[in-house]
Amino acid sequence: MADKRDYYEILGVSKTATVEEIKSAFRKRAKECHPDLHPGDKKAEAEFKELNEAAEVLVDPEKRAKYDQYGHAAFDPSMGGQDPFAGGGFGGFGDLGDILGQMFGGAFSGGGFGGSTRNGPVPGEDLRYSITISFEEAAFGAEKEITIPREEVCETCGGSGAKPGTEPVKCKTCNGTGQVRTQQNTILGSFTSTRPCAACRGTGKFVNDPCPDCRGAGRVRKNIKKTLKIPAGIDNGQTLRLPNMGSAGHRGGPNGDLYVTIGVRSHKQFVRKGFDLYLEIPISYTMAALGGSITVPTLRESVKYTIPAGTQPGSTFRLREQGIKHLNANGTGDLLVTVKVEVPKHLTEEQKSLLEQYAATLGESGDGRTGKKNVFNRSSNKK
């Protein structure tokens, strides 16, 4: 991650650039380093991949917001991030694909550099899913039943899109290749580009008699129930990648992936920071002064802890390995307990007398009703 260049620097735009300014910068740079203009030039290919990666993130408001906040770490799977190109290669261009299609031909709308065919197997779409779990489920792990609406291969036609007993026929326009080649003159010169065949939509085949169930699409939408295994230690906002759990591919292509974003509900007692837990617990004035044993709640079971005499308000004690299990690794975080000393608001006459006697041993005087300092409002009036 440390070797990656800043996305704004790659495109030559400021961090306040609009989407249109980013697209304009992308067009300009793409004309300079597009691989079709530099056949066999590995450097140009690497520069174009870097350019595409930067633009793909910055034209997407959600991805851009994550990048602005976390930098490249937002898309580093090892840090709980999500690869913006996972499962997509160069097939996830979106608006950028339209830009490249206009500049260099339609090969980009299906993925890959110019010259790739579209009538072969095509991977299915990646899917996104969100689920909210309890604080305890995030800490200890859980299994959740989820229902995923996704595209499945049509069982009636086996994915061909043709009515059972019939077969798709070869497209006459592209001769079954799924592409047509065109000569294009641009400001950079003349070169040949490929576009998906408009007649067969890049498949290379026609379905004259479509399947009655999928209507020629080769896929049908279904709700699929799956058991999602949530690992112990996962945190709010992290994403799980489930390979091959996305929609079915086209023409025998593999399934896409499923990305599940985890939301974790807050806890009424504990606050999580990384793998450590933080807890504030009240103790009495006398407990702070004299010390004693208290019961500390944890996520597992309550434990005893001895408060040392003379504990000051706001003191924090660490209970080892009482925090959150490390995600996909050995080790457990700690529980940090901060004590809150509660000063009594209402005292009996006997309690007041005892405290006044204690104040007298410190050289203090006053009963709190004359405006003189006592044990509760003194500011260090020692003699």
Question: Which structural traits does this protein have?
Answer:
about 375 residues, alpha+beta, HSP40/DNAj peptide-binding domain, 5 domains, four-stranded mixed beta sheet, 8 helices, 15 strands, elongated
The mean pLDDT is 81
CATH superfamily of the largest domain, by name, is: DnaJ domain
CATH architecture of the largest domain: Orthogonal Bundle
Instruction: Count all strands and give the number.
Output: 15
**Unreliable residue runs:** 83-94, 104-117, 368-383
Portion in beta strands: 25-35%
Strand order of the largest sheet: 10-11-15-14
Task: State the secondary-structure class.
Answer: alpha+beta
* C-alpha geometry: elongated
Sheet with the most strands, sense and barrel status: 4 strands, mixed
What's the N-to-C terminus distance?
A: 62 Å
The first-level CATH class name of the largest domain: Mainly Alpha
The topology string of helices and strands comes to HHHHHEHEEEEEEEEEEHEEEEH
Q: How much helix is in the residues?
A: 10-25%
| Total individual domains | 5
CATH topology of the largest domain: Helix Hairpins
Radius of gyration: 33 Å
Helical stretch count? Answer: 8
